[in-house]
């Protein structure tokens, strides 16, 4: 069985974001990058299945982006993926979801993957459509935002998370693609011996030009902070002073403290 | 300009959020037609054209067939925009329709701008203005971003007859876990987010809730990490609350959390990140380390 997991490297979301020179995405200077959180659940689920299947199964991790994404790829290899494909694209962040999905589908189409795992969305772009679009382009069955996954003899049983805590249970036959939601599993930390072992694993580098043919379907015209709604009070400084101020405000503005 | 609105129906009921689609179309100043995989006896209060397929035969979650139904109606209506809610139904189905038509798909729209749409990014801390390059586009709108509009009237129903399976077999629903606390009735909620750092710190948040006579709430990551039981979760996949006072401790303010608590009368947020999106809706933002500020506040309240 052949498995693929697609990951993205994203900035630490606690960072302060400034527009880049074109004003359409963030400036990468001073940002620390790591694996997209939803993708960690996808990697973990793919590895759990890889371990269950044992010999004869192969798990590839794929990431599109500049050379910095190799760090996220190495983490996936240290967690337990067998090998990797780095689709080298310094301009990946300027591509729309359709182009990214097309690149992945072009890479995957002649490789006979049985199951593809992705995160449900990226934390930076948040378009929540690359995984589903890849499935459509490949003609794979697909379900989204899964919080439960089981595989047996060509059939996936997945639990989708719906609004209000309700879940929907679905079955689908492979080949299939699933997009993973937080809480699906507990992603492992790579151990030192596995980090050492991962250094020997193969990372195939493919220039994006070999896979990219599609033009964008949507374009970003501006990247900016939200308009401040105003009205909110911001308190900074000494903790003791702030406690006094908050108590005074609560007494003044709410009926809950007297 | 014309929109095709894709209504939502689950467990035998038309979902109220369907009316938010009409709110969006109203703001856009567009003509509307609606498509619903639902039921004859659950028609929306809407006087326009409604393409109706029967959920009893088409399934409530059968994306391959629902896609086919939508494509059939797109042929007839030729809408400029096909509009979904950015929900578990919409975000699953919308990209399939966009891919089939090879047109732009713009996700989780929060506002309409000149010739395009405003969407959130970077965990809701930033915004992008996005324009479709294609003549038509698929759009999903953020829950709660557009005011629901219930025009009234009885729809002009056109029945859709398509049937067929798809790659998926829907087995059934699993009910939400039983709640041991009903946060919906609480007047004061003190919620813990990832910023509290570790499970051992939860009692300090609980102590503030107790001192105020309120209940403990939590954000999703804290529940996923099993620091707090799911019955305390506030947000789209937990409970929706509107207490008199909501204190968010170390919660950055993911959209899903905000959707569950933004109707609170008064919101105090404690966060070390001054730019955290929770600051956008907080009446008071305290820029501080949660574990320093909260025990100090508890001590003062308890006096």
Provide a concise account of the structure shown.
The complex is a heterodimer of chains A (about 260) and B (about 300). Chain A has about 260 residues and is of the alpha/beta class. Chain A has six helices and 13 strands.
Describe the model.
The complex is a heterodimer of chains A (258) and B (303). Chain A contains six helices and 13 strands. With 258 residues, chain A is of the alpha/beta class. The radius of gyration of chain A is 21 Å and the shape is globular. The N and C termini of chain A lie far apart (66 Å). Chain B is α/β, with parallel strands linked by helices. Chain B folds into two domains: 2-159, HUPs (Rossmann fold, 3-Layer(aba) Sandwich); 183-302, Rossmann fold (3-Layer(aba) Sandwich), CATH 3.40.50. Chain B has helices at residues 18-28, 55-58, 63-77, 90-101, 202-212, 220-224, 255-261, 290-302; strands spanning 2-6, 9-10, 13-14, 31-38, 49-54, 81-85, 104-113, 116-121, 126-132, 137-141, 156-159, 168-174, 188-192, 215-218, 245-249, 266-271, 284-287. In chain B, strand 8 (116-121) and strand 9 (126-132) form a beta hairpin. Chains A and B meet through helix 3, helix 4, strand 7, strand 8 and strand 9 of A and helix 4, strand 7, strand 8, strand 9 and strand 12 of B.
């Amino acid at each position: 069985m052949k498995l693929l997991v697609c990951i993205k490297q994203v900035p630490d979301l606690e960072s302060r974001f400034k527009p880049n020179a074109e004003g359409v995405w963030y400036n990468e200077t001073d940002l620390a990058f790591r694996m997209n959180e939803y993708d960690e659940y996808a990697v973990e689920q793919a590895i759990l299945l890889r371990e269950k299947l044992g010999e004869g199964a192969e798990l590839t991790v794929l990431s599109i982006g500049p050379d910095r994404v190799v760090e996220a790829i190495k983490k996936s290899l240290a967690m337990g993926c067998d090998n990797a494909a780095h689709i080298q694209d310094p301009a990946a962040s300027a591509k729309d979801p359709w182009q990214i999905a097309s690149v992945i589908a072009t890479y995957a189409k002649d490789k006979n993957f049985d199951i593809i795992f992705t995160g449900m969305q990226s934390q930076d772009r948040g378009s929540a459509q690359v995984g589903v679009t890849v499935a459509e382009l490949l003609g794979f069955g697909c379900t989204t935002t899964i919080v439960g996954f089981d595989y047996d003899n060509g059939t996936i049983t997945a639990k989708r998370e719906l609004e209000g805590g309700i879940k929907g249970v679905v079955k689908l036959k492979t080949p299939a693609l699933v997009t993973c939601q937080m809480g699906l599993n507990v992603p492992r930390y790579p151990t030192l011996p596995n980090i050492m072992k991962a250094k020997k694993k193969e990372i195939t580098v493919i220039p994006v030009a070999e896979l990219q043919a599609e033009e964008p379907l949507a374009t970003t015209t501006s990247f900016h902070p939200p308009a401040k709604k105003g009205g909110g009070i911001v308190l900074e400084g000494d903790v003791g002073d702030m406690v006094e101020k908050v108590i005074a405000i609560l007494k003044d503005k709410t009926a809950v403290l007297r | 300009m014309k929109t095709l609105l894709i209504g939502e129906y689950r467990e035998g009921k038309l979902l109220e959020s369907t009316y938010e689609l009409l709110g969006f179309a109203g703001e856009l100043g567009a003509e509307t037609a609606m498509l619903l995989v639902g039921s004859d006896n659950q028609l929306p209060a809407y006087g326009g054209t409604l393409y109706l397929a029967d959920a009893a035969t088409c399934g409530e979650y059968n994306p391959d067939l629902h896609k086919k139904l939508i494509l059939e109606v797109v042929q007839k209506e030729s809408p400029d925009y096909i509009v979904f809610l950015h929900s578990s139904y919409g975000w699953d189905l919308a990209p399939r329709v966009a891919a089939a038509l090879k047109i732009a798909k713009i996700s989780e729209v929060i506002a309409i701008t000149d010739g395009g749409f405003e969407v959130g990014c970077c965990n809701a801390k930033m915004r992008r203005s996005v324009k479709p390059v294609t003549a038509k586009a698929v759009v999903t709108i953020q829950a709660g971003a557009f005011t629901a509009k219930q025009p009234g009237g009885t729809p002009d129903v056109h029945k859709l007859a398509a049937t067929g399976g798809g790659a998926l077999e829907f087995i059934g629903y699993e009910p939400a876990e039983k709640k041991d606390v009903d946060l919906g009735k609480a007047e004061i909620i003190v919620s813990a987010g990832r910023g509290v750092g570790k499970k051992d710190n939860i009692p300090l948040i609980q102590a503030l809730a107790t001192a105020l006579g309120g209940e403990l709430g939590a954000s999703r990551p804290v529940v996923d990490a099993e620091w707090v039981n799911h019955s305390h979760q506030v947000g789209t996949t937990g409970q929706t609350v509107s207490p008199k006072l909501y204190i968010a401790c170390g919660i950055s303010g993911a959209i899903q959390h905000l959707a569950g608590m933004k109707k609170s009368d008064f919101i105090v947020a404690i966060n070390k990140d001054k730019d955290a999106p929770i600051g956008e809706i907080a009446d008071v933002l305290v820029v501080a380390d949660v574990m320093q500020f909260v025990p100090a506040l508890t001590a003062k309240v308890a006096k």
